[in-house]
Amino acid sequence: MNCNHSNRSTFTALSCGIALGLAGISTAAPLITVPWNGHVGAVSFTFDDALETQVLNLKPLLDAMPDVHVTFFLTAFQDRLKDNAAGFAALANAGHEMGNHTISHWHLTDETDEELEEDVVKFADTIEATMAKYGADVKVVSFATPFCENGDHVKTIIDKRHMLNRDCTYDGARTFWDEEPDWMSMPAKIWSRSGATVNEMLNALDTAAYIGKFDNSIPLEHPITGGSWLIVLQHDVSERMIDNYAINPDDIKTLFERAVKNGLWVAPIGTVGAYQRAHFIFDKALMTKTDDGYKVTWKVPHEYMPKSVPLRVALDTSRVDSKAVIMQDGKVLTPESDGHYIIEFMSKSLTIKTSKEIGLPPKIKRNAKDYTKFTIFDLKGKKLGDANGFKVPESYPKGVYFIRAEAKGLTPLTKKISR
């Protein structure tokens, strides 16, 4: 019997409890992760290429905006890491993320395994060592593909040393809370060079915060029913608009301000990614009865997660009284002002003490068979036709598609499918 508890059905909980027998009854814990750390949605601003303008023009803006933290993807191309290391170390010490954008900034799909090992795996260690030299304690967990060129083999190499990878995709890309993405190919809305104007980016920030009406949105975006995670890709931050490559400092400030105003969680890609990735594990965690309460345990999904992954969690008071005591690492956790608890996911366990037995969870599970209509879209959101489940018909050319599932009374579900 599989007691990993892939769903929260009463039958599974009871069956696993009987199977575990003398080890104690196990069932799903009465704790669940609060989406997007308590915000309506999230946005991660990412800046590629380790450019000097990012240090000179962004740091003053970021220093004045404590609610905004971003990601810088560093490269050694043209000695940029060496020349700008001190500035990026200062940004790291201010709470911003340093990610890996390769030594060479070359085409990864053209490289040999030896070249990929140097460019992708070993360079992550180089970034950490360089930042340490300038006084910043950095753990590299995120990657960004140069030119957004990726493939199955490249993903395998990236996954050896990074928790997630950012690519690019069509401008309507969003990541939704309960739909686990391809962590080695995260979608991003691209800077103005791709044709995304500042106004379009502002609209995207509104969409992520679920502000506005979406009746006239492209078909793929129409199912938006709540907040989501938007990843934004930028490069040069300056007033020099060469080939639309740069974004003006005033414009990026406008984007930051809109994100904060909208109530979005403005955090690095590694921070939001780790939070969401942890949610898929923690929300299925099992608890076991002990002499004085319950112990909840779980596993870390990837070796290269951040050192700390604080999760905001809610206690299910329909199953346990609100006076239950939650302990972790030998300390009693105190509820936040909103009643939620902050637990450390990387500790991999916690205990719950309560005066009464914890009830079993209700059955909640969403399966493909629950949906009655499946529609295929291309990467630009153009409707192509109907599908039979989450499977692209063999008559379609090989490539990447989106399939949207719908049924009356259920939230639409969209998945990216390769053929």
Care to describe what's here?
The chain is an alpha/beta fold and 419 residues long. The chain contains 8 helices and 21 strands. The chain has a 6-stranded antiparallel sheet. Strands 3, 4, 5, 8, 9 and 10 form a 6-stranded parallel sheet that branches. Helix 2 packs parallel to helix 3 and helix 6 packs parallel to helix 7. The longest helix has 21 residues. It starts with 9 loop residues before the first helix and ends with a strand. The N terminus is likely disordered.
Topology:
Blueprint: H1 10-20, E1 26-28, E2 31-33, E3 42-48, H2 52-63, E4 71-74, H3 80-93, E5 97-100, H4 113-133, E6 142-144, H5 152-159, E7 164-166, E8 189-190, H6 198-208, E9 229-234, H7 249-261, E10 265-266, H8 269-282, E11 286-290, E12 293-297, E13 310-315, E14 325-328, E15 331-332, E16 341-344, E17 349-353, E18 373-377, E19 383-386, E20 400-406, E21 413-418
Parallel strand pairs: 3-4, 3-9, 3-10, 4-5, 6-7, 8-9
Antiparallel strand pairs: 1-11, 2-13, 11-12, 12-17, 13-16, 14-15, 14-17, 18-19, 18-20, 20-21
Helix pairs in contact: 2-3, 3-4, 6-7
Instruction: Report strand order across the widest sheet.
Output: 1-11-12-17-14-15
The tally of helices reads: 8
What is the molecular shape? Answer: globular
What number of domains? 3
Uncertain residue segments: 1-24, 216-222
Q: Would you identify the CATH H-level superfamily of the largest domain?
A: Glycoside hydrolase/deacetylase
- How does the major sheet shape up? 6 strands, antiparallel
Helical/strand content category: alpha/beta
The tally of strands reads 21
Kindly report the average pLDDT value. Answer: 86
CATH topology of the largest domain: TIM Barrel
- Helical percentage: 10-25%
Order of helices and strands: HEEEHEHEHEHEEHEHEHEEEEEEEEEEE
Question: Regarding CATH, which class of the largest domain?
Answer: Alpha Beta
If classified by CATH, what would the architecture of the largest domain be?
Alpha-Beta Barrel
Distance between the termini: 32 Å
The whole-angstrom Rg is: 23 Å
